[in-house]
Amino acid sequence: MPVWHTRPVDEQDSLTLSNWQVVQLSNGDRHLVGYCVENREGRVSSVVRELDTRQLCARTATGRIYTLRGQPGGNLDAAYVWKQWAALNSVDSWKDVTTAIWQEHRDARST
């Protein structure tokens, strides 16, 4: 299965991810991994610059806005794209910080 470049931000400035995860690289950079609802494809975002855990939305280094829909989870297409992205970018160490982000969301919504 091939992995392709995404449409430019000026053509698609916001996207929705379902079955999403947040991964953190060893240098602290975070990326969103999930299923892009609009394009019906697995997606890995550029580096997350801002993350609003209350509203579950993020702005990335490219300026694209991602809305995280529903609860976190996994998706086979997204996992495949993450594996390919990690290999292309020589990422051999990362951790899944989704649980912590989800807990921050739940805490923020309960206040």
What's the total number of strands? 7
Spans of 5+ residues with little confidence (pLDDT < 50)?
none
* Proportion of beta-strand residues: 35-45%
Q: Order of SSEs, N→C?
A: EEEEEEHEH
Measured as a percent range, the helix fraction is 10-25%
Tally of individual helices: 2
Mean pLDDT: 94
Quaternary class: single chain
How many whole angstroms does the radius of gyration measure? 13 Å
Largest sheet: 7 strands, mixed
Question: How would you classify the helix and strand content by structural class?
Answer: alpha+beta
End-to-end Cα distance: 44 Å
Folded structure, characterized:
- It is a single chain.
- The chain has 111 residues and is an alpha+beta fold.
- 23% of the residues lie in helices and 35% in strands.
- It has helices spanning 76-88, 98-109, and strands at 14-25, 30-36, 41-44, 48-52, 57-60, 65-68, 94-96.
